[in-house]
Amino acid sequence: MTLLGERRDTERRSTFGRRAAISPPLPAALVAISHGTNSPDGQAAIAALVLAVSLARPGLAVTGGFVDVQQPDVAASLGAVRPDCAAVVVPLLLSAGYHVHVDLQRETREHDRVTTVSRALGPDDRLIDVLVQRLLADGFDRRVRGQEIVLAAAGSSDARAVHDCRTVGALLEQRLGVRVTVGFLSAATPRLACAVTGARLRSANVTVSTYLVAPGFFFDLTRAQSVGADLVTAPLLLPGESAPAPLVDLVLDRYLEAKESAGLF
User: Fold this and answer.
1) Which InterPro entries has this protein been placed in (predicted)?
2) Which residue among 91, 113, 172, 260 has the highest number of C-beta atoms inside a 10 angstrom radius?
3) What is the pTM of this model?
């Protein structure tokens, strides 16, 4: 038989125990923000990357969104994260131009949530790994003497983004031991068509290495501006294929780096 006072004391101890067992805070969510595209192939390829990142870290809340063209936009993507969670926005962009330095900074500041933005994906040696994988898969033979590669990049009016792309070109040249020039599809020079023409004047064998995340408008433009090239490789991601492991690792590392820098759990 339990006396009333004993029962109340037991309830107090039980309540204290429950309070002491409160779960630790949830780790910051990873919000992967890509540019967005009208291309169904591009949409499927990006979705596969976000899914691969989620599967690689089962305990981590991972969601995707877009800075342009598609929905959900940045605000809606952040709004979908649990209210008791901070967020790390990881731009699925190859270089840090206007979207990274301006758009994402503004849109995360305006949201009522503890949020930080990571670096863009490039430059990074793991992107070189994927570029080389694409080159070899599409028939590039590094043994051919005197050949040239033109790295096809989207381009930006931001000099920092242009510098990022040129750095990737230099890293690719160093990795393969083949001359690499960079051609841009918009905003920066030389334009891809001019870079391909220049390479053709110097070499009998020219390959265009596509430095784009996924199929879409810019990949269509790459093929249109690569007249004279012997080979045009696919983008880093393709629908129906698993996302390359180096790219998945890179997204997660950008998340961890930004989270640690911001002091988030």
Assistant:
1) CbiX-like, Sirohydro_Cobaltochel/CbiX
2) 91
3) 0.89
